[in-house]
Design brief:
The protein has 118 residues and is an alpha+beta fold. It contains three helices and six strands.
Amino acid sequence: MSRGPKSRRAYRASIPVAEIREKVQMAENGPERLYDFTIVSTVPVAFICVKYARRILVSLAEIAAEFSEDIQKLRLITHDTAISRELWLCSKHGTLRFFRIIADGLVELGRDGKVLAG
């Protein structure tokens, strides 16, 4: 996983999308940081981790395997109907995919934070 310019590009691409959903609050940098920012809205509050993905058009199982460490960190945040733990992936072209971490895996979301059909 890259932590250089590609990660910063992914982070910059994600903020305008997050702001459409509601108020964005940035997390403080630190070695124990579990997420990059939160989206505070009426319900749910979303804890977001943004990552650069070399390959973005892959299966949920491949995403779960490649980003297992990040998913495990997000799982440390309590789960409730009022809380969404999300992994956002960004390709080298700026394409974003969004996933909610649930008890037994991942579900894909649209830009609006709602579960995609199918």
